[in-house]
Each structure stands twice: as C-alpha cells, then as structure tokens.
Inverse folding.
C-alpha cells in the first residue's frame, strides 16, 4: 500500500510540474503582460519599467527557474495588476465558486444517477427514450446558451429570479441549474450503460433465479457493480470544483475563480493563472487518487491490484 | 422553538424603529450600474488606471481636479477645486482654491493637499513604482514644483514654458487626493486602492473584478449628491447586462453596441442615451513593413476607406467621420477645413500603381471586439481595400502584446486616440510624437514630426502653434501617413426611461448634482 501511495504521489507531483510548466511557457510566449496591463497608450518608459519591475526583461528560462525556485519555497508570486499576493487573490474567490459547484455537483448526481438507473431498468421503453433525449439535450446545449435562455425566461420574462450577481441565495439557482444539466446528462448516460452491462451478467440471472426480489437484486448486486464508471465520472467532476464554472461565472457575473481565471489569462497575469492551475491540478490529482481508493472499496477484486499499483 | 412573547415582540419592534426612521429620512434613490469592466489594474488611482476609459466612468465621482470640465456642455474648462486661475508667466499658473471643500475623510481641503497631490510621495519619488513615475512624467513632463502662496492660493511652476498647464490641470494626473489619508494608508499600492478625494461620492467598497460601491458625500461643495448609493457591478457579457436591465435589476447598462439600441428601446420602459465621445478610432501603420515603406501605399489605404459607409452601416449613423485627429474642444487650436483623406478608389488605385505595389500581403492585426464592432469594421475594411487591389490579411489577436509583437510582419493595426486635455499635445504628440507609443513600438517615426513636436510643446504663440499642428496633420495623415482616422467613437448607455440622467460627451457617468436632474 505504501508503494502504491508513493507511486501515486510521485505521478501527481509530476503532473503538477508538467501543468504548471506548460502554462508558464504558453503564457510567456503568447503575449506581453506589460503591454496588456498597461495598455498600448502607456509611455514606452512606463512599459519598460513595468517589465523590469516584474522580471519580464529577463530570459524566459531564467524566469522559469526562478519561478519554480519560489514555488519550492512556498512563494507563488504577486498579481501584476495590483501587487497583491496571488494565493490570497485566488483563495478569496474559492468560496464563491464552491457556492455554485458543490450544489451543482449534488444536483448532477441527484438527477443523473437515478435517471440513468431508471433508463436502464426500463430499457427501450418510452421512459428510457425520454431520459436519454433529455440527457443528450443537457450535455449538447452549450452552457452560455442555456444560461442566457434561463435568464430570459426566469429573470426577464417571469421576473422570478435574478439574472446575475451574488446578492442572495436566489442568485445561485440559475447558475446551478445551468451547470447541472449538462453534467446530469453525462452521468445519466454513463450510469445507464454501466447498469445495462451489469444487468446482463450471469450473477444477476442467478440471483433472480434464486428468487431474490428484483428490487433487492438491483440494490444489492447491480448498483454496486455499476458504480465504478459512475464514480470515475463523479471523481472527474469533483476535480473541476475549483475552476469548473468559467463560462457560467461570466454569464452570471459571479465573482469566482472561473471569472478570475478569464481575467488573469486575458491580462497575462501569470502569477494568478499559475496559482489557479496549481490548485486545479492538486484538486484533480487528489480527486483521482480518492477515486482509485474507492475502486478498492467498491470492488474487492481490485484491492490486490491497487496495493501493487497495477491496473 | 422560541416562543414569541409580547416583550420579545416589542423589543424587536423597538430595535427596528430607529433604523427605519434613518432609512426614511434619506429618500434619494440608489442605483446599480452594470459595466463591462470596473478597472484595468484593480486600483482606484489615475496614475495606475492611466489611458483607461474603463475607470473614467467613475473616477470623476470620487476625485476632482483643480480645473474641471463641463460635462453638461462641450467639456470646456470650468472652475472645480480652484475657483479661478491666472497666468503669472509662461511657466507659472496661479490658482485660488475653493473654500470650505470637505474631503471624504472629513478634512478641509488645503494647499498642502494640492502640493502633495503633485509631489514626490504620489508621483515622482523613489518609493513610487517606476511605471507610475513614467506615467507621471508624461502627464507632467516639466513640472518643477507647487508653490503654496497661502492656505488658499497655490502656484503651479513649470521648468519650461507650457501653454497646456491649465489643460493638464483639468486632465488625468491632475486629480487632488487627501494628503492625510494617503500617508495613513502606508504604501503607494495600499493607497492606490483607497482613493480619498472631494467628489460627490466617496468610495465605500471595492471588490476587484466584481463590484464597487460609492456612497453620497453629503458635504460635497457642489450640492447634495442626488443619489444615496451607486453600485457598479462588473458584468462582462453584453447580453447579461441587457438582460439585467430588462429584468429591472440594473438601472443602467453601459457599453451597449449600436446594433442593440433598437432592441433595448423596443421596451417602452427603457431608453439608450449617449453619443459621440472624445475618442477617435484609428488604424496605425508600421512603415517598416516592406509593402508600406512607400507612403503612397499607406495613403492609398486611407483613400480606399469609405468612413461614412462604416458609420452608417456599423454605427447606424450614430458615430461621425471627424476632421482628422482633432476635436472642436481644442478651441483656437482646431484646424478648420481639415478633413480625413476622402474616399476615392480611383485615386487609391493610381497611388498604388505609382508606388509599384504588386499585391504583396499586408498584415492587419485586430482584437476580438476590444473596440465596439471591431471585427465587423475590420472585415469591411479588408473588402474596401480588396476593391482597390490591396491584399490585406486580417489577423485577430487576443491581446495588445500579440498585436504589437515584432515577430512576424506588422502592417496595420487597430487603435484609438483620446485627447486627455484640450491641446494637440495630448493626442497627436502623445501617441505619434518622438516619445509616443508608435515610435516606442518601432512602428512609425518622422524626423520633421519629431522636431515639430518639440516646438509645439515649448511654443507659446497660438498662431504659430496652430501652424505647427496643421503641418503635423499634413505629415501624419497625408505626406507620411502614421495612421488613418476611421471615425469618432460613441458610447451608449441603456437605462430606465424615467431616470433623469443626462449623458455627457465623454465616458464619465456623471451622477453629480448637474448630471442627475431630478
């Protein structure tokens, strides 16, 4: 188990290094933060002074190594826009994002998994077709389109809910619905597929033949065995909790990490972007790690392979 | 479960009564304004937010200049924190400070605040960020000192003759801040987020990239502010701003594109106000591009453009083709009779033939609607150029760094020009002169223009300065084109029809006693 954990942590660290390195190189080579933040009307001397102040006049490789050196000392840099510590800027946005992404995750799982199970249990019936049609619609409509449609209906026409902002709990409803429908659709399809596969297995037939009630067969044998693909998708969704609302936060003027990422990328505010990516990578790797551990819990056959790190 | 007793109920009622009474005593409305962006640099200081029409929307509500601009007129100079001013000589202006001006921190404005606002701690000293010092140097290239004559009189002393001192005092970089608040903030950066001035509204809170709240400054020298509270909310998507306006959540929605005006006004409760502002959309040339070295090719590009067609089609006639890179508020410096190169495709073709242009690719860099209707305008331009035989390739870039990147061919690019004060130095010299951005980027420079820039900066004779400016226009727009002026920009704000707000001829959202005529 220790070997397994060590290997996973090593891979996680390597993933994070690669993500941050990739972001560093792409952002450094795709725009000058001085020109972007200061604007092209700024005096050339001001732009030159900005570059010097932030070390942008040094060779890229030198900037890269000093950046990593700083990270190893726990220093993630400062925002070039206003000089505040990058980690503080990002951390103050995380609660707002989690206010959307956690309820959205609950709604996705709460709708998607039961819908997928029902669709599988009533395979080829009108229920199955209706659920799958809604699921396809859910994940094919882009979230910015869905968000604006919901705003037009519930905010502009009916006046029931606010169109944006962060003033009260009512402001959460439309963004959460917008974020949930696509994910619920994905989960419904995966759950249905997994359930159909399991329902065709010999042990389901055996249990049924032994006279076990159908509800007990589904609850005790089908659902746990179908859970692995669903847990994988949910794990991925957990990994996107931090920065999974980029578009929705822009449409609903929600001041979370997603909006911050958009603004920071547009301004090439490198410390902020890298700080967010670092957090996202850590969240994603942690979520994957937990999912790996859950595999062992859900399926005893995988425990041996997990402990050796094999798949 | 808690029992609601009579005592508890009475206590609750008593606790709410005073608050209710206070609330009732102030009947002024509060508004929410949806803006695309609140600030570029997440600061509230004009030295950091320089060159930005983003912060121009609210800065004037918080900070004021000694000399103001008539936002309800044509932006002509008007008394503000100074009641009067006079020239002592070519390098000195004396100003009488307005008495009884209460700053947002409760202090009375005095000459020390004014001297501090132009001093080393705020603009030029070693503790000031180096980029801010460079910006300050552009605002005040030869400022020597501020002399305090007495508590109510100061003198602005320049090291060189400068007829634009009064104009500079009315522009960005001329705002007056509270000395005490600045020094108490502890650092330049900390202060840059806590603007404390004398305007009709004081900064109550500022959440970067999210919202800014301004509260009425009831001791405002210009009269009681008409609004109790202004909340600026950052709503980046235009569709979301319009939806919020229609839903009644926002009373104002800024940065409305011309094609949405009719859609908004279809709702009888809503209106769109605004119009021309002090900003010209231009195209800037890189004359190092092999195909653009010959000025006749650049001039041909100018003659190939039907600016009025762009104004009529993209702006529904609400913008304007101006008289070159100048504005009527230049007053005596405005060159009457000057025009942009006329739309003449035949002349353009003749110029291209004479220059030996053989269809070489000219790169045109634009951003994705950084300017209103930028991409639509760019596509129209490419077709207009194609019609006269120019082979222009549009490249859409994500940011200014990419637009100005020297790697790869730079031909022509989108830009705009705003005069920060009422003299050509603030526009043509600032952007196209020897120390301007176009020269700094290595795109364009002209020896005669550089000489004339120095002469315009130090000249004091109006007639001679005007002659110099006219020659500059001739160089930059005809002889050795540095840019092409496309049209004067306009800005539009959607609002509830019953609100008594007057749109000024600028980006400033004037919610002061004069801008809001209840």
């Amino acid at each position: 188990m220790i070997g397994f954990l060590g290997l996973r942590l090593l891979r996680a660290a390597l993933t994070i290094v690669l993500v941050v390195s990739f972001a560093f190189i792409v952002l450094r080579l795709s725009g000058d933060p001085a020109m972007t933040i200061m604007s092209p009307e700024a005096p050339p001397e001001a732009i030159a002074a900005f570059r010097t102040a932030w070390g942008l006049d040094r060779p890229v490789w030198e900037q890269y190594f000093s950046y990593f050196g700083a990270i190893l000392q726990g220093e993630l840099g400062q925002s070039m826009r206003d000089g505040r510590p990058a980690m503080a800027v990002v951390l103050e946005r995380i609660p707002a994002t989690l206010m959307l992404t956690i309820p959205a995750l609950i709604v996705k799982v709460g709708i998607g998994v039961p819908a997928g199970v029902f669709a599988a249990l009533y395979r080829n019936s009108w229920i199955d077709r209706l659920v799958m049609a809604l699921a396809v619609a859910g994940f094919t409509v882009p979230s910015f389109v869905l968000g604006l449609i919901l705003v037009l209906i519930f905010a502009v026409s009916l006046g029931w809910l606010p169109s944006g902002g962060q003033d009260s709990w009512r402001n959460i409803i439309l963004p959460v619905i917008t974020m949930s429908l696509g994910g619920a659709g994905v989960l419904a399809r995966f759950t249905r597929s997994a359930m159909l596969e399991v329902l065709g297995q010999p042990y389901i037939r055996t249990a049924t033949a032994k006279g076990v009630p159908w509800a007990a067969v589904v609850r005790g044998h089908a659902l746990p065995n179908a859970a692995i693909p669903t847990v994988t998708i949910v794990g991925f969704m957990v990994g996107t909790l931090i920065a999974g609302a980029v578009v929705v936060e822009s449409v609903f003027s929600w001041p979370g990490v997603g909006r911050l990422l958009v603004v920071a990328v547009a301004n090439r505010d490198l410390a902020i972007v890298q700080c967010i990516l670092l957090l996202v990578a850590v969240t994603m790797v942690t979520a994957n790690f937990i999912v790996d551990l859950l595999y062992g819990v859900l399926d005893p056959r995988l425990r041996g392979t997990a402990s050796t790190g094999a798949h | 479960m808690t029992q609601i007793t009579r005592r508890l109920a009475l206590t609750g009622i008593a606790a709410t009564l005073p608050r209710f009474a206070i609330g009732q005593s102030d009947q002024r409305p509060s508004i929410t304004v949806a803006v695309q962006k609140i600030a570029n640099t997440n600061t509230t200081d004009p030295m950091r937010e320089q060159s930005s029409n983003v912060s121009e929307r609210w800065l004037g509500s918080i900070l004021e200049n000694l000399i103001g601009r008539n936002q309800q007129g044509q932006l002509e100079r008007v008394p503000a924190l100074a009641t009067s001013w006079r020239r002592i000589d070519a390098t000195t202006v004396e100003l009488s400070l307005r008495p009884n001006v209460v700053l947002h921190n409760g202090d009375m404005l005095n000459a020390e605040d004014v001297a501090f606002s132009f001093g080393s701690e705020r603009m030029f000293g070693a503790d000031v960020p180096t980029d801010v010092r460079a910006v300050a140097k552009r605002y005040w290239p030869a400022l020597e000192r501020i002399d305090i004559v007495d508590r109510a009189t100061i003198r602005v002393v320049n090291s060189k003759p400068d007829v634009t001192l009064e104009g500079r005092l009315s522009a960005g970089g001329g705002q007056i801040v509270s000395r005490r608040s600045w020094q108490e903030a502890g650092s330049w950066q900390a202060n840059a987020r806590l603007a404390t001035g004398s305007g009709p509204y004081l900064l109550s809170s500022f959440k970067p990239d999210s919202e800014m709240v301004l509260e009425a400054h009831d001791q405002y020298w210009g009269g009681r502010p008409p609004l109790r509270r202004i909340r600026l909310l950052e709503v980046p998507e235009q569709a979301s701003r319009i939806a919020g306006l229609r839903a009644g959540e926002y009373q104002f929605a800024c940065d409305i594109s011309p094609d949405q005006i009719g859609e908004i006004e279809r709702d009888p409760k809503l209106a769109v106000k605004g119009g021309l502002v002090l900003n010209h959309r231009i195209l800037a040339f890189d004359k190092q591009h092999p195909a653009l070295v010959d000025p006749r090719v650049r001039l041909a590009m100018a003659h190939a453009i039907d600016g009025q067609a762009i104004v009529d089609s993209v702006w529904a006639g609400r913008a304007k083709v101006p008289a070159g890179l100048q504005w009527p508020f230049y007053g005596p410096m405005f060159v009457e009779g000057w025009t942009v190169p006329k739309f003449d495709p035949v002349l353009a073709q003749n110029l291209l033939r004479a220059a030996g242009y053989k269809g070489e690719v000219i790169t045109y860099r634009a951003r994705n609607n950084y300017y209103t209707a930028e991409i639509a305008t760019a596509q129209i331009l490419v077709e207009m150029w194609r019609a006269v035989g120019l082979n222009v390739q549009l490249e859409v870039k994500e940011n200014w760094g990419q637009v100005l990147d020297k790697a790869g061919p730079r031909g022509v690019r989108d830009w705009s020009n705003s005069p920060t004060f009422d003299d050509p130095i603030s526009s043509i010299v600032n952007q196209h002169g020897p120390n301007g951005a176009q020269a700094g980027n290595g795109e364009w420079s002209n020896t005669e223009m550089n000489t004339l820039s120095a002469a315009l900066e130090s000249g004091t004779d109006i007639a001679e300065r005007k002659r110099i400016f006219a020659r500059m226009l001739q160089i930059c727009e005809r002889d050795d084109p540095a840019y092409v002026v496309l049209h004067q920009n306009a800005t539009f704000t959607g609002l509830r029809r019953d609100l008594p707000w007057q749109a000024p001829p600028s980006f400033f959202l004037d919610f002061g006693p004069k801008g809001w005529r209840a």
